[in-house]
Design a protein that fits this description.
- Helices cover 54% and strands 4% of the residues.
- It has helices at 12-22, 25-34, 40-59, 70-81, 87-106, 133-141, 150-163, 167-172, 201-218, 240-253, 262-275, 280-287, 292-295, 303-313, and strands spanning 178-179, 184-188, 194-198.
- Strands 1-2-3 form a three-stranded antiparallel β-sheet.
């Protein structure tokens, strides 16, 4: 079976709209918005996956969700597996279908969940790229704070490495979110969830210098909209791409061969905390992970660290 992109015929649009209503697509989307509190991009991705599934069921003349059985779902997933899709995309599709049918079961729209016994092969989880502390220090050392933008760039790197914030969170941070006296920053993460992240001494000093000396110059035309980081050209809020270019610039200056990207600083923050003995629950809170299983990926240790622990603590080492 090959998933179809739409229905054929002159009344294809009407038939498709009717299928979306029969399969409670809008109600499920409301559930994602108001009860699951998912981010807009996540909701759009969920809807795209589910629309594809409903199109296929409609093309096979399935009358509604109650008529969907395990064989139909398995057949659909097998067809997707034959397409040039990443394993993660296939796993996401099954995850969306599971959530959808559980929602319908909770709403008493169906009497059974056809995805209940369907499993996909477990994906191997790739460890994220991590910078060493020496590489972080080399990047900071490459910043010329006497040049235009230097104070901003140092504050940016110190903040990202010192808090593990996502690039989207940094871009969205406002002046009012920064509480230097309390040594914390308020972070608004995925799903508009708020968390409080501590600031270290180096980040506080760098941010203080930037706010006092350079940011007023960048915002001289009043275009900063209250955002923390501004660009050098016109004082508009700094963008994700702008941050990527800044980090790449200093990585190259520091002689780092790896393709440094914003999320690598987040990975480095978490890994260095765990390697130095931080509790996973505390790291989970600072990263804003909803599930600690996501945080556990950072518990990987270097071979030398493991050897050192073995030498120190094993009685026969």
């Amino acid at each position: 079976m090959q998933p179809v992109s739409g229905l054929k015929g002159s009344d294809g649009r009407d038939s498709l709209d009717r299928a979306f209503r029969l399969f409670c697509l809008e109600r499920f989307e409301d559930y994602l918005v108001f009860e699951r509190n998912l981010a807009k991009n996540s909701i759009l991705a969920y809807r795209r996956d589910l629309e594809c599934f409903i199109r296929e069921m409609a093309a096979r003349h399935v009358s509604g969700p109650e008529s969907v059985d395990r064989a139909l779902v398995a057949d659909y997933l097998n067809a997707l597996a034959g397409l040039p899709l990443a394993a993660s995309s296939l796993a996401r599709c099954l995850s969306v279908l599971r959530l959808y049918f559980r929602f319908l079961a909770g709403e008493k729209e169906i009497s059974h969940d056809p995805t209940d016994t369907i499993e996909l092969p477990r994906q191997s989880r790739r460890l994220p790229g991590v910078l060493t502390i020496e590489e972080i220090l080399a990047m900071l050392g490459a910043v010329d704070t006497s040049s235009r933008g230097g104070l901003r760039d140092k504050a940016l790197i110190e903040l990202m490495y010192g808090t593990g914030m996502r690039v989207s969170e940094v871009v969205g941070s406002g002046l009012e979110d920064l509480r230097l006296k309390e040594e914390v920053i308020l972070v608004f993460g995925k799903g508009s969830k708020e968390r409080v992240v501590p600031l270290g001494a180096h980040a506080i000093r760098a941010l203080g210098d930037y706010l006092k000396i350079e940011r007023p110059l960048l915002d001289r035309h009043g275009r900063g909209a209250g955002r923390l980081f501004l660009n050098l050209r016109d004082g508009d809020p700094l963008t994700r791409m702008g941050i990527w270019k800044i980090l790449r610039k200093y990585a190259l200056s520091a002689g780092i061969e790896a393709k440094v990207h914003p999320h690598m600083l987040r990975h480095s923050f978490a890994t260095h905390l765990v390697e130095n003995g931080a509790d996973l629950r505390a790291v989970q809170e600072m990263l804003g992970h909803a599930d600690i299983s996501t945080t556990k990926i950072y518990s990987h240790l270097s071979g030398e660290t493991l050897r050192q622990v073995h030498r120190e603590y094993h009685p026969r080492a």
